[in-house]
Structure formats: C-alpha cells, structure tokens
Amino acid sequence: MRPQPEIVIPASVDMPQAVAVTADNGVQIYMLPTPDFEVVRFSFVFRAGTSVQHKPFAASAAANMLGEGSRGMSAQQIAEQLDFYGSYFDVNIDRDYAYISFCSLRKFFMPTLEVAREIILNPAFPEHEFAVYCSKRKQNLAIERRKVDMQSRELFATALFGAEHPYGISSPESLYDELTREDLVDLYNKLYTADNCFVVCSGLLDDEVMSHIKAMAEALPAGEKIDVNLPATNTTHQLRRNIDTALQSSVRVGRLLFPRTHPDFVGMQVVAAVLGGYFGSRLMQNLREEHGYTYGVMAAMVNFDKEGYLAIATQVAREVREDVLREIYFEIERLRTELVPEDELQMVKNVMVGEILRILDGPFGIADVTIENIMCGMDNEATERSVEQINAITPEQVRDLAAKYLRREDLIEVVVG
Q1: Smallest Cα–Cα separation from 126: which of 66, 186, 50?
Q2: Is position 231 within any domain?
Q3: Looking at the 3D structure of the chain, how many domains does it have?
Q4: Does 12 map to a domain?
Q5: Is 167 found in the same domain as 255?
Q6: Average pLDDT value for residue range 240-266
Q7: What are the beta bridge partners of residue 46?
C-alpha cells in the first residue's frame, strides 16, 4: 500500500492584484485577467442594500426585479437570450450592497452584454410582474417566519442592533402591500448610479471586452454618493420567544464586535473556528458527539460594512435547550481560561487556510474575494495578510482574545421555540 501523501498547508498565498481603471464618470473598474479561461464574468456592485432603502422591502424588490423586463426586452426575452447562449445572470443583496453579475463564454460575450445593458441601464419594473413578485415574496416570507430558525435569526439581529436599527429591523410581511412600483423606480434612480457603483471583471479580458464593459459603466447616470450614517446600536442581552407548538428550539449566542477592518477580526475568526467553525470543533464534539443534542452547530464572525459580530447557532429539542446553553457557555469559558493544544490549533489553521485556498481556486472565487476586499477599503494583499495572521496566531493569543471579547456578561442569548 502506498503511503498517504503528506498534507502541506502553505504559510502564505499569492493572490493576484486587481488592475483598476476609472471610467469617465468615476466608476472604478477592477480587472482580474485569467487568459487560460474562455469565460468572462463581470459584476456591477451598487451601494443599494437594505440599510439604505427608504421603504421596507424596496431594496430587495428593486434588485430582484431588474431582470423582470426592461424598456427593450421582456422578462421572457431576457431569460431566453441568456439561456440560448448558456450565460447566467445572478442577483444578490445584503444589508449594504446589491450585486449584479453576468457570466458567459468569451465568444458569447456580446449577446450577453446586450442583456446586461438592458437589465442594469433600462429596467422597466413592469406593473404585472411587480404585483406577482410582491405576492410571492409576501407568502414565502410568511411561511419562512413560521420556522424557529428564521425567527431566531431575526430576533438575534434585533438583540444585537436594536429593533429600529437598519441592521436589526424586521419588517412585517404585510408591508409588501404598501410597496409600489414607484418606490422601486425612486430607489433605482437614487442608488443605481455611477457614484454608488464599482465593477469587478474576471476571465478572458481582452481589449474588446473591457472597452464594452467600460462603455456600459460610463452609461450609468451621475448621482449623489450615499453617505451612510447609521444610528447607535441598542443591544438587548437576552430575548426569548416561546412557541408551544414547536418541537425544536433555535438557540443563538454571540455579541456585537467589530467589522473586518479591526485588527482583532482575523484573530476572532480563529476563536470562532475553534468553537464551531468546522466539523471537529469543540461545540460539535460537545453538543453532537458527546451529548447528542443536535445534528450541527456553527460559530462564525459576520462582517457588515459598519459593524461585525460573532454568532453561535444551533437547533435542538426544546427540552434540552437549557442544557445546550450551559454547554455553550462551558466551552466559551474553557477557551477563555485554558490554552488550546498546539495540535488542535494547527488543525483549525489548516481548515481555515484550506477553505481560503478552496475559494481562491478559480477566477470567479478570486473575483468574489476581491469584491469583499474592495468593500472593506482594502486591496488583495488583505487576503494574504489574513493567511499570515492565521498561521502566526498562538494558543496564548487565542486565549487572550477569548478572555477579552467573550465575557459572559457581554454575550447575547436568543432562544426561540
């Protein structure tokens, strides 16, 4: 039998730097050329997330309705043209940004660009499609909110930020009835502008491709740059919602910390990974393997533009939820007072660096990480520094970070079920 090959985790990564050009209207365009791939992907990123919307659900509705018809193409024509050429169009939206991405083979770039121009520059927000969208979303949200996991996620955000904070608010689905097509048009005109946009391109980026993407970016109208001034957070340390008919309880523990630009963010990512960031983590060993309380538990640092937090989440039978909370706090306290064994910490480092390498395996993953770095005001050297920080962290630093940031009196606890 051949010996198992040695696992080698690199001490650093060499991530390509994006080449930036500026369109005539100020839009920054970042290029990540990979000539070996016969594909082109380009993403328009707008500061048009839910935290800057003027009316509940307007931001997500505007983003998701972009492909539902334009002034030059119907929704069916858009879908058929993309399908015919094997291209795809994807929309994502979070608290801070809306991401509109297109991907095609290089030889089908021009017909894909034709659709992209219609979607981004000429959306019509047709009245019929808008009514259907709101009806479906209202119904789907009502169904999702019957689940304890969805309720605890929203309640946890409220506990972290406050019920009126843009990051913590959970609007009732009935407000879809008050949303109008004009609300979407107003939000689009205000936020989908050159001053609130940057573009990231990857793949086979020849001169023709880049000239057309640049021309499309330059067609965006000028607008007023959105200056986000979020209100102060209003944290509540314990929230519980009892549901007599629920068989399970959704448990979340964590606290408000800091965004990715903070010098301790990467270190707290390591702390979170030790707790619940991989299948062999301490919380998985305790709650799943030793006690059989749950199928899974996770812990992670979450990054927003203006804030960041640590979250631990799991679902358990309602009769053991207090036992689960006790064990979560036990593992946190152990991390605060004891040194992590070197072999365990090395495993965590291997998992974290391996995940970064997995994400960076290909031009699209590199583009996604580049987008995240740009949003944080960083270049791609930030990813290289993160790997170096992960590999360099010591058991003493892990303990000290946990002791500093995970005091029991600072933690937030949410239980639904």
Answers
A1: 66
A2: no
A3: 2
A4: no
A5: no
A6: 94
A7: 98, 197
